[in-house]
Amino acid sequence: MNYKKLIVDSGLRMLNSGYTVGTWGNISVRDQEKNLVYLTPSGMDYSKIIEEDVVVCDLDGNTVEGTRKPTIETLLHLGVYKARPEVNAIVHTHPIYSTVFSCAGEDIPSVIDEAAQTLGGIVKTAPYALPGSQELADNCVRALGDKANACLLMSHGAVCLGETMEAAFKVSTVLEVTAQIYYMVRSMGKECIKISDENIAAMEYFVKNIYGQR
């Protein structure tokens, strides 16, 4: 697989999704065979990034290939990969509705079926820490735990995970749709009726073992 092309294409996809603007957010993918991580470069316009701009590093953060500075959130990406061996792609977005809840320091519960099937439980908001800091990386890893596929960074944005890049983008989309629905129900002066843990577990099993083509 051409991981550099995947990063370039994914940067354009994130920009065109409306989940970020300018140079905000960042993306990475892990090559499981070589245990290398491919990252977006720091502060570069996604519409102008080419394959030569992608930075490749090991899990200790040592640059293996590339001349650009990697994303400021490299510590966060590497921390997640170390903690979650099943994860091979991370998309850090700045979506509006999800970030609204992060600014309020609120978690987003599973209030729709798609969230129950995709997000891995409650999407927690990690305590605030400065961008690029080890503290932010540690807070993110704790908020994700060993199961969640997304978390919010207080007053900052969202971090979405997947076994593949496609899966990570699906998580980012479902998270923002869930946040918007949750926000709108709350705006009605109502409280969402949360899906039970039992039904969440049933839907997770359904998606992994029954739904779709095999």
UniProtKB/TrEMBL annotation:
GO process terms (BP): pentose catabolic process
Residue ranges annotated for the Class II aldolase/adducin N-terminal domain, each copy included: 5-183
Source domain of life: Bacteria
Annotated Pfam families: Aldolase_II
One of the record's GO cellular component terms: cytosol
Presence of keyword Signal: no
GO molecular function, one term: metal ion binding
Keyword line: Lyase, Metal-binding
Gene3D superfamilies on file: Class II aldolase/adducin N-terminal domain
InterPro entries: Aldolase_class_II_sugar_metab, Aldolase_II/adducin_N, Aldolase_II/adducin_N_sf
Transmembrane segments annotated in the record for this chain: none
PANTHER family: 3-OXO-TETRONATE 4-PHOSPHATE DECARBOXYLASE-RELATED, FUCULOSE PHOSPHATE ALDOLASE
Name the UniProt record assigns to this protein: L-fuculose-phosphate aldolase
Organism: Ruminiclostridium sufflavum DSM 19573
